[in-house]
Amino acid sequence: MPDIDKQEQGQEQNQGPDFTPEMNPPVREEAPSRAETIRKGPIRRFLDTPADNTAKTVTVALLLCLVASMVVSAAAVSLRPLQEKNAALDKQVNIVQVAGLYEDGVDVAEVFRSFEPHVLELATGAFTDRFDPYQFDDRAAAEDMTLSAPLDDDPAGIRRQAEYVTVYLLRDESGALDKVILPVYGYGLWSTLYGFIAVEEDGNTIYGLQFYEHAETPGLGAEVDNPRWKALWRDKKLRDGEGNLAITVAKTPPPAGRDHFVDALSGATLTSRGVDNLVRFWMSERGFEPFLERVRAGEL
Ligand SMILES: Cc1cc2nc3c(=O)[nH]c(=O)nc-3n(C[C@H](O)[C@H](O)[C@H](O)COP(=O)(O)O)c2cc1C
């Protein structure tokens, strides 16, 4: 009798539908025990977090930013001396070029040693030994409140003008003055153009003009770097027979004549106007004229 009861019970239990895998209830993943979680450690637990977890995404992004900024900062700091060295070398190349001494393969540092740097007091046109010309930083001086003055009338668009600048003298074998290399800069259309103008020993004839830094548009304002345009400056005269500043960059020659005329760049009238303004400013009484007077007088 007890066996019959068991059979009946078994029949009752098997009365439901047949078993299929689909009907198997989902196996519930058991949450890791607290002991397991502690044993994993914070990094392991972080890595085990699902990839679409917002906190994980934000943390990874922040870590990436941090690492990238550290790499960029380290590169910037470690490369700075190299950048400064290259900037100094580039300036030397430009001084050598504007003086017409550059040739392919030339040892620029060696040629540059033939130039005499001096720190010039613009107002008097005299050299000063207040600063070491090998250390003097013209750009920093132009920003220094104690070494520069604001400009009310500012045709070159430079806002402040330094009292002192570095100029370079080039002498021939006999020691006589051959050229003076003068730094000039001013605003074009998009940027401040920095360059050098080389003036012959007569203090009036331009040997060359060359910019070493600007951000004018390639093919338009950046044509200031075009050798054909730069060649237009050779032998132009700063001042006319009466001593008036006459050099002009324009579309048509000035009344003083072609000796003082550099044709403006076509399609880049605004950059050309900037160059006209900056050259005329730096060659004026407010710029290098006191010094050029001394050059013309043969004092150097
Ligand atoms: C994208 C763009 C970039 C330009 N860049 C310069 C530039 O660097 N220097 C410049 O003088 N003019 C530049 N121009 C042209 C000036 O806007 C202006 O048209 C020109 O200076 C007039 O010169 P033109 O009288 O010889 O034609 C640029 C124009 C455009 C649309």
Automatic annotation (TrEMBL):
Provide the E.C. number(s) assigned to this enzyme: 7.2.1.1
The kind of enzyme this is, by top-level EC class, is translocase
State the source organism's domain of life. Bacteria
The record describes its membrane topology as:
Single-pass membrane protein
**What are the UniProt keywords, alphabetically?**
Cell inner membrane, Cell membrane, Flavoprotein, FMN, Ion transport, Membrane, NAD, Phosphoprotein, Sodium, Sodium transport, Translocase, Transmembrane, Transmembrane helix, Transport, Ubiquinone
Q: Enumerate the catalysed reactions.
A: a ubiquinone + n Na(+)(in) + NADH + H(+) = a ubiquinol + n Na(+)(out) + NAD(+)
* Record-annotated membrane-spanning stretches: 58-79
**Residue numbers spanned by region Disordered:** 1-42
Q: Which InterPro entries match?
A: FMN-bd, NqrC
Its Gene Ontology cellular component terms are: plasma membrane
Instruction: Write out the biased-composition intervals (Basic and acidic residues).
Output: 27-39
Q: Does the keyword Flavoprotein apply?
A: yes
* GO MF term list: FMN binding; oxidoreductase activity, acting on NAD(P)H, quinone or similar compound as acceptor
Q: Which Pfam families match?
A: FMN_bind
Primary location: membrane
Co-factor requirement: FMN
Q: Which residues carry this modification: FMN phosphoryl threonine?
A: T269
What's the stated role of this polypeptide?
A: NQR complex catalyzes the reduction of ubiquinone-1 to ubiquinol by two successive reactions, coupled with the transport of Na(+) ions from the cytoplasm to the periplasm. NqrA to NqrE are probably involved in the second step, the conversion of ubisemiquinone to ubiquinol.
The family note in this entry says: Belongs to the NqrC family.
Q: How does it assemble?
A: Composed of six subunits; NqrA, NqrB, NqrC, NqrD, NqrE and NqrF.
Q: What is the protein name given in its UniProt record?
A: Na(+)-translocating NADH-quinone reductase subunit C
Q: What organism does the UniProt record list as the source?
A: Nitratireductor pacificus pht-3B
The gene it comes from is nqrC
